[in-house]
Design a protein that fits this description.
Blueprint: H1 10-18, E1 40-41, E2 49-50, E3 58-62, H2 63-69, H3 74-78, E4 84-88, E5 96-100, E6 108-112, E7 115-116, E8 135-142, H4 146-149, E9 156-162, E10 170-178, E11 182-193, E12 196-210, E13 235-249, E14 254-268, E15 276-293, E16 296-313, E17 316-337, E18 340-355, E19 363-377, E20 380-391, E21 395-409, E22 412-423, H5 427-431, E23 443-456, E24 459-477, E25 482-502, E26 505-518, E27 534-544, E28 547-556, E29 559-560, E30 568-569, E31 572-582, E32 587-594, E33 613-620
Parallel strand pairs: 6-9
Antiparallel strand pairs: 1-2, 3-8, 4-5, 6-7, 8-9, 10-11, 10-33, 11-12, 12-13, 13-14, 14-15, 15-16, 16-17, 17-18, 18-19, 19-20, 20-21, 21-22, 22-23, 23-24, 24-25, 25-26, 26-27, 27-28, 28-31, 29-30, 31-32, 32-33
Pfam families: Plug (PF07715), TonB_dep_Rec_b-barrel (PF00593)
Subcellular location: Cell outer membrane
GO molecular function, one term: porin activity
Length: about 625
């Protein structure tokens, strides 16, 4: 597929020229003083906040951690982290679903530079098509956040920030190769000059892949592979990606920025109805910020996400779809007093569907207003938020949340929270020909949370407990022959995160325990499928002069692949060895041996995982 820009619609032009990104580099405290970017998050409260004192469970993965991990994809980077289970159908570029705190794969809000992404038809974010080479930082916020972000934030919010450059201009280049005929390269430039900043990065990656579906005697529906004859071929993946961004501080009060990310992929897989797809993920957006005073600022943000795919069987075109998601937010942050902040905002979201399938409806909009209060009272902190959504399809819906935290003694904090959330029905559930039910309402949830954190010299830990009840889940209703709001589910669990330095080693570890239950229908009492009951990730790193050595261990418990709990996938553990050597101050050689012991495992029944792999990367990045 040739790399080509999408046509610029009116909405796209507006997004690029006049709307805002919630770029982390532009976040500032209300005191007007700059904050250390390594210590703040913006996703949990839609305002800058120190991660160490966040009332919500937050995890941040910055660019240094991304490069140190040597992850080759976003799913690879997120695998095994606290609260996250992933299911992959056969390697790079293949369908990947993410379950955050046991919530359904379409019950997590995903943002790229403040722009909501995801398919309006399936409700899923295309994790497999997001280029890790273009990412500067990822913020993971676990728990209900519909009172700030609206529909789908039952499990939480994952916010991806593309690269940002804040110092002098400098280039960067990387090139690498490894197992399964894999190779990639990339080049970029970015930095700041005076009041203006800009950057651009291009990246390419390709793998010949492996046989994604492992079915010896297939049937048309065996294991979800949808094949009637074995296809023991290589299922490869190719991806081009381009990221551009820029901005200017017009004066001390006004800032303007714009950003665009485009990823194009060619994916091969096994299937009777299609076995190849050309995919597009595109996000464009921008921002205008106005700092009226130290106690008042306004921010206008917005953009468009395009999620598109053309499907082929051999050389024949068999279908295509494209969904556009336009969004905009106007937010005012008002400093009431020292330590007391009120945020007021209005959201607008529009989904549009186009493709070879003719839907009964192909367009809907959502309007919302929200308010949030944050207050510090000595050792106590309090937050409260409320939101009202008005949707063209299901009407009005109100969500809210409260959180409280207290510093018990120096270094120890306790947090508690409660929140409601909801998920909007997808276009497939509402309007798919002869299947959709336009009378569907949103799925609803209630979550209670309790956490305790400890911060010491060179070490920290956080333990979070949660219990989520979900009502009106959408499932097929035999009585009407259509999907309906008829099911209920419960997810509860615990998450422990630890970071420490000891004897020259840096440790980052997390452990998750999850208990899910289907609470209605024929499958009442069963576990929800494709969620591992136990998960753990540990990273150990140490530098010996110019040489750095690291290990990444990931373990996941057993899971079921079906709602009836008849197909059990056993647990597994993998260990990665990572090496890094600084040839010069600017030139670094990296090597990774993934799945060192060649463990054979599946995260979706009948779909292979790659086994042992090696990859070598050379990076050149002069200091600014």
């Amino acid at each position: 597929m040739p790399f080509r820009p999408a046509p610029l619609t009116v909405a796209t032009v507006l997004a690029l020229s006049s709307l805002p990104s919630v770029a982390l580099a532009e976040a500032a405290a209300f005191s007007g003083q700059a904050m250390d970017l390594d210590e703040i998050v913006v996703t949990a409260t839609r305002t800058p906040h120190q991660a160490a004192t966040a009332l919500q469970p937050v995890e941040v993965i910055d660019r240094d951690a991304i490069e140190r991990s040597q992850a080759r994809s976003v799913p690879d980077l997120l695998r095994g982290r606290a609260g996250i289970s992933l299911s992959n159908q056969g390697g790079a570029g293949k369908l990947t679903t993410l379950f955050l705190r046991g919530a359904e794969s379409d019950q997590t809000v995903v943002l790229v530079d403040g722009v909501r992404i995801g398919s309006s038809t399936s409700g899923l974010a295309s994790w497999q098509n997001l280029p890790v080479a273009q990412i500067d930082r990822i913020e993971i916020v676990r728990g209900p956040r519909s009172s700030l972000y609206g529909a789908d934030a039952i499990g939480g919010v994952i916010h991806i920030f593309t690269r940002r450059d804040t110092a002098g201009f400098a280039p960067r280049v990387h090139v690498g190769g490894g197992s399964h005929g894999a190779h990639d390269y990339g080049i970029g430039l970015g930095g700041r000059q005076g009041r203006a900043w800009m950057g651009a990065d291009y990246a390419f990656k390709r793998t010949e892949g492996f046989n994604s579906c492992d079915v010896a005697q297939p049937t048309p529906f065996s294991g979800g592979c949808f094949i009637s004859e074995p296809e023991p071929d290589l299922d490869g993946y190719l991806e081009h990606s381009l990221s551009v961004r820029g901005g200017i501080d017009i004066n001390d009060a006004w800032q303007v920025s714009a950003h665009a990310l485009r990823s194009e992929g060619e994916n091969e897989y096994d299937g009777d109805y299609s076995n190849r797809s050309d995919t597009v993920q595109q996000v464009v957006g921008g921002s205008i910020g106005w700092q009226v005073s130290d106690a008042l600022q306004f921010k206008l943000t917005g953009g468009r996400n395009t999620d598109a795919s053309d499907q082929f069987l051999g050389q024949a075109t068999v279908g295509h779809f494209s969904t556009d998601r336009d969004s905009a937010t106007l937010q005012a942050d008002i400093g009431l007093a020292d330590g007391h902040l009120l945020s007021l905002g209005a959201d607008w979201l529009r989904d549009h569907v186009d493709g070879s399938t003719i839907y009964d409806e192909d367009d809907r909009a959502n309007r919302a207003a929200f308010a949030q209060y944050q207050g510090d009272f000595g050792r106590h902190a309090f937050q409260a938020s409320l939101r009202r959504d008005d949707n063209d399809q299901f009407g009005g819906h109100t969500t809210g949340g409260v959180a409280w935290g207290m510093e018990i003694v120096d270094g120890w904090r306790i947090n508690a929270g409660y929140g409601t959330a909801f998920k909007a029905p997808t276009f497939n559930e509402l309007y798919y020909p002869f299947f959709g039910n336009p009378e569907l309402g949103p799925e609803e949830s209630e979550t209670a949370e309790l956490g305790i954190t400890w911060t010491g010299t060179g070490a920290s830990a956080r333990l979070d407990l949660f219990d989520t009840q979900v009502d009106d889940l959408i499932a097929f209703d035999a009585a009407i022959g259509l999907p309906n709001n008829i099911e209920r589910a419960r997810m509860r669990g615990a998450e422990l995160g630890v970071g420490a330095g000891w004897a020259g080693w840096d440790l980052a570890a997390s452990v998750s325990v999850l208990d899910t239950e289907n609470r209605s229908g024929f499958n009442a009492g069963n576990e929800l499928p494709r969620r591992a009951k136990h998960g753990a990730r540990i990273e150990l790193d140490r530098a010996f002069g110019d040489l750095r050595i690291g290990f990444t261990g990931i373990a996941e418990g057993a899971r079921y692949d079906d709602v009836a709990n008849t197909m059990r996938l056993p647990g597994y553990a993998t260990l990665d060895l990572r090496l890094e050597y600084a040839l010069t101050e600017a030139l670094v050689l990296q090597g990774r041996l993934a799945n060192l012991f060649d463990r054979d495992y599946e995260t979706a029944a009948f779909y292979n995982q790659p086994g042992r792999e090696w990859f070598v990367t050379l990076r050149w990045a002069p200091q600014n």
